Amino acid sequence: MKHLRKNKLGPIYAAAIALLLLSILLGLFLGATEVGFADVLKALFHGDTDSPQAKILWFVRLPRVAAGLLCGAALAVSGAVIQGVLANRLASPSIIGVNAGAGLAVTLCAAFGIVGGWRLSLFAFLGAFLTVMLVSLGAKKWGASRGTVILMGVALNALLGAVSDTVTTFVPDVSILSSAFKVGDFASATYVKLIPAAVVILVSLLFLNTLSNALDVLTLGEENAKGLGMNTELTRVLFLIFAALLAGAAVSVAGLLSFVGLLVPHAVRRVATTQSRHLLPLCALVGAGFVTLCDTLARIIFAPYELPVGIIMAFLGAPFFLFILIKGKGGHSRA
After folding, report:
1. Which helix (H) or strand (E) holds 84?
2. Residue 6: strand, helix, or coil
3. Which of 83, 107, 215, 333 is least surrounded by CB atoms within 10 angstroms?
4. Residue ranges per domain, the chain?
5. CA of 243: how far to CAs of 149, 188, 200, 228, 237, in Å?
6. Do residues 315 and 304 lie in contact, with contact meaning Cβ atoms separated by under 8 Å?
7. C-alpha 174 chain-centroid distance
8. Stated pTM of the model
9. Chain-centre distance of CA 81, in angstroms?
10. 3-state secondary structure at position 208
11. Helix axes 276-300, 309-327, angle to 10 degrees
């Protein structure tokens, strides 16, 4: 069985890379304004920045595609890590309140005039980390079941969303950004906003890839991991820090994108492997390609009008979540 699994990983990696490349090409070429292959080559390899097509490519589509790739990879890997640490395949950044915690931090930053840069990414991380630690500690202290952890996340989502709405009510200027932010959208992606988040995401992905074996040990259970000499408390906090960094950085760029961290890890586990050394890079590749394709679809489906990409995610993710919830009987089965 292991030999068969190894034999099919090569084609799966190839398919994931093909999805990634396809999403990049479609994201660059497709949109309300036609940008041809010759225009792309001229802009990328001949330094054209003067034509209207080049300006659209350099300052609209490239940052938008880059944002989709980075945020998709970040949310998918964050979901895989959170599911492993909490031993709950129904957990994801959007479902257990991690995105909402980062979103509240971003809303507070906007209320105080912080709309980009390192400070925004830092506060988004702090909001995400405090939320995920609250859920983790609560689950451990009260011995919560897997289904109860999800209910805790739902309650936190509601509470943090209410606080965000309260801030928006008293600071009307924030409401200008709140609609697209709550749904999730890349329309406002810029290099200035993207660069700090990109550094955080890439560094976090690199570190998590080196810690993949430790994540596998942690998923064996508390007693087994301790028996193998692991400091489970420190390791768990370390993984949650990186998961929060990924989710917080993604939220600071894209807003509250839903279901990426749930849908992608499930799909990768089903068709590929549960071993973290393959699971995490495959989640990064598939998540990046999937979110970028969804954003391209959101731009062209009603062109010249466009939907926020979060709406597409909700249409795809909500039925999938209901399916695995019913199949897993509330999250108690071993998915």
Report:
1. helix 62-86
2. helix
3. 333
4. 2-327
5. 17, 24, 11, 24, 10
6. no
7. 23
8. 0.86
9. 11
10. helix
11. 130
- Say which residue the tokens 């279901």 belong to: 259
Tell me the C-alpha distance between 50 and 78, whole Å.
Answer: 39
Which tokens go with 125?
């991380």
Spatial neighbors of 57 by CB under 8 A, at least 6 apart, are 28, 35, 39, 40, 43, 44
Task: Specify the CATH number of the domain 2-327.
Answer: 1.10.3470.10
Give 306's DSSP letter: -
Instruction: Tell me the angle at which helices 191-210 and 232-254 cross, rounded to the nearest 10 degrees.
Output: 160
- Residue with tokens 């991991």, as numbered in its chain: 225
